[in-house]
Amino acid sequence: KFVHNIILHLLEYPLSSTMATMLLPTLFLALLLALHPFSGVLAFAPPAAARSCYASSSSTSIAASSSPSDNDAFKMMPSSPAPAMDNTRKAFLQSMLTAAAATATVAMQPTAAANAATTQAASSFLGTYSDPINHPGGTRTITLIDGASNGDYQLAQVIGGGGRGEPKEYTLPAVIFGDRAIVIDFSPKGGPRDFAGVLESDGSIKFLRDGNRWPRL
User: Fold this and answer.
1) Do 91 and 113 meet the contact criterion of CB atoms below 8 Å apart?
2) Which of 181, 217, 216, 214 is nearest to 198 (CA)?
3) Using one digit for the tens of pLDDT, what is the confidence trace for 187-200?
């Protein structure tokens, strides 16, 4: 159950290839140790217990080899690990899995500085634009949603309206990627959900699908 909960916790975050390379070997080793019935010696037994298990195994092996049966000569009675060994192994596995989960959580959560940098880059799109080709007379004002940045993207909204052939006012969800691109969801006004545009050197937004431009006012 503990292993199951750790895996569910890790799946809540998008795992990058670098983090997967770091964490998957550790988790695999932990699962292997948890599921495979290793002997007490492999279960991180204390030195004294290990010597005791070794002596017991050696005695069993010698006794088996002196048996008249050919089949028994190659058999060794399995040793039963002491309860202390099981507890030691369980504690080790729990600490290893907890450390792996903590590392993944910290590494995959963007820092406050990274989020601030993302917001700063997205501010390049802030402002009011027009749409003279499709809806002359209307405006589109892009604003950021406070505290809604994660990694390389920032949530935003487009408040527009007043142009020919469109509602008087509407709000469209949007996502800004750094200072490079914006994806606007036009479905609230009957358009496509993923209309992508890029910021041009003159400050306008050029949409890739139809080539339309929003000049900055």
Assistant:
1) no
2) 181
3) 999 999 999 999 99
